[in-house]
Write a structure and sequence with these properties.
Distance between the termini: 35 Å
Number of strands: 8
CATH architecture: 3-Layer(aba) Sandwich
CATH superfamily: Vaccinia Virus protein VP39
Order of helices and strands: HHEHEHEEHEHHEHHEE
Number of domains: 1
Strand content: 25-35%
Helix content: 25-40%
């Protein structure tokens, strides 16, 4: 698959700065916790269920779900993402998470899961990938961006280097796919804002990693300094990136 390896390299680097499960936080103090809380209040349960987390990342969903589920399979193509998830689950003594290093296009489910969860996963690129999600489970929770939304706080830097990046919507594409198949589903919009803090070294590394993903090698440090200056906060002595996300939560079940 074209550009597969650079993407994996990017996500392996991102694993060092991605949010991770923090025991002791209230359920609603994270985006993942908020969504799971909303699903629970809407009547969707995962106690004693088998769950496949597609594009699990550092395990922000997988670790929470494993506390009640019978078994969770965390699937991700980035080894460092799975390493972070494995470390956090081990700290909590969770032994019911199975880790699989694979891209979605290469993964062949050996069983049908009770629930498939897929959140902001760039590996879902076409209807074949979406069909595979449906076939893998009895129910599906899919979280994607709304139409025309780009949450990246450094999009001006990408534009400077001639990269016209469009964030795949995900949500509308999944709704279109389910509607064309005549399947009943539920969905609701979800607004989220997360704030990330970087020291100078990690901020520059993040920018270089982002540009490398789009084929820009060895960017000028003076250019990076200029764009990052807008994110510097004297009171915190850190660079602050605010991600405002407009999402859709889509739920489908064979029982609908």
């Amino acid at each position: 698959m074209e550009n597969t390896k650079p993407n994996i390299d990017y996500w392996n680097e991102q694993a060092q700065i991605f949010p991770r499960h923090q025991e002791g936080l209230q359920q609603i103090e994270t985006l993942e916790g908020e969504i799971l809380d909303e699903l629970s209040r809407a009547g969707y349960k995962w106690k004693d269920k088998t769950i496949l987390d597609v594009g699990s990342g550092t395990g922000m969903y997988a670790v929470k779900l494993a506390k009640e589920a019978k078994a969770v399979t965390a699937l991700d193509p980035a080894e460092r993402m799975l390493t972070a998830c494995r470390e956090d689950s081990r700290k909590l003594g969770l032994k019911n998470i199975n880790f699989i290093l694979s891209q979605w296009s290469d993964f062949q489910p050996k069983k049908k899961y009770d629930l498939v969860l897929c959140s902001l996963c760039p590996g879902i690129q076409n209807d074949q990938d979406r069909e595979k999600l449906l076939e893998a489970g009895q129910s599906l929770v899919y979280i994607g961006f709304q139409e025309g939304h780009d949450p990246n706080p450094m999009k001006s830097l990408l534009k400077y280097y001639g990269v016209e990046k469009k964030t795949p919507a995900g949500g509308p594409e999944m709704r279109r796919f389910l509607s064309e198949k005549g399947l009943k589903f539920y969905f609701w919009p979800k607004q989220s804002q997360t704030t990330e803090y970087y020291d100078r070294t990690s901020a520059f590394k993040w920018c270089r990693s982002l540009l490398s993903l789009h084929g820009i090698k060895n960017p000028d440090d003076n250019v990076l300094e200029c764009f990052l200056a807008n994110l510097w906060r004297d009171d915190q002595r850190l660079y602050v990136m605010v991600w405002s996300k407009a999402l859709e939560v889509i739920v489908w079940s064979q029982n609908n």
